[in-house]
Amino acid sequence: MDSPAPLDFLTGSPSVPRDLLVWQHAVACLRAGIPVALLLVVHSAGSSPGRQGFKMSVAPGSMVGSIGGGIMEHKFVELARHRMADGQGGLLLREQVHRGEAGHNRSGMICSGEQTVLLLHLRPDYLPLLRQVADALQHDGTGWLRLTAAGELSLTTAPPTAAGFQPGPAWTYTERLGFREQLTIVGGGHVALALSRIASTLDFHLTVLDDRAGLNTLQLNPYPHQKRTVDYARLGAEIPEGPTQFVVIMTVGYRTDAVALRQLLGRRFAYLGLMGSEAKITELRRDLLAEGYPEAQLAAVHAPIGLPIHSRTPEEIAISVAAELIRARNAPRAHS
């Protein structure tokens, strides 16, 4: 009997933006003549359970997505269904304050944050646009979705002058479609494979790069949206910088780590991390300082990467790295 090929257990695929299922559900309902409403967090602050951009599609007998859970979400789902049952259209915009002592707009939760929730009845004439949105998300497309106080929905490829929620009587809300953050893993070995599996559940657009042609753990990795064999000496041209770019270096050894890191030092990333032991990181840091790299550039590198949970296996290391990526992503910072 032939033995199974290595990594035959991998059956995953590149992830899709979590919003896709919400829009697909809305499209399916409208096509079937079933009333459906959109719940959308247009603004959030503090310890709000639902962050800006969280959304749900709600029909009489089904729903997809989340605006944060708990009693607040339950109340909005019931409100949406009640309005649909009564044939009420249009939209509502309601502020929710998550503090027990709040004088008004109290949500019933006590986590101390605030959020503004939109309830929009999706009319049949929205269907062509919603299909465009779902199609763009399905095929890794980009664009900007805009919603106005008049209930107008539009989709454009041109970046807006001001994204997010612009308050006022004639308020607007604009969000970017697709993945908001991009994660590039430099090095396609066993830890990269384990990290790819976890990252595929975290709403990152994922790229894995390695300089070894024919590397089995790269070839058989089903989770990245892109994977390429590259020359680490030209890595700077492969990875764009920006406030939504996360980069993890975990190559095969010290020499290739150093080559990759030299290409990326001093560039602007949301996160730049390097895997390795304390001893390796100390030696690499000393060598780079001797070469003239500024202390400030080296201090910006997360190294060794990962939260300190005494991880040993590739899967445990991947979990510690993923936790650090989540912490960096959710820390207050400027988004584009």
Automatic annotation (TrEMBL):
InterPro entries: MoCofactor_Util/Proc, XdhC_CoxI, XdhC_Rossmann_dom. Residues 183-325 form the XdhC Rossmann domain. Residues 29-91 form the XdhC- CoxI domain. This is XdhC/CoxI family protein.
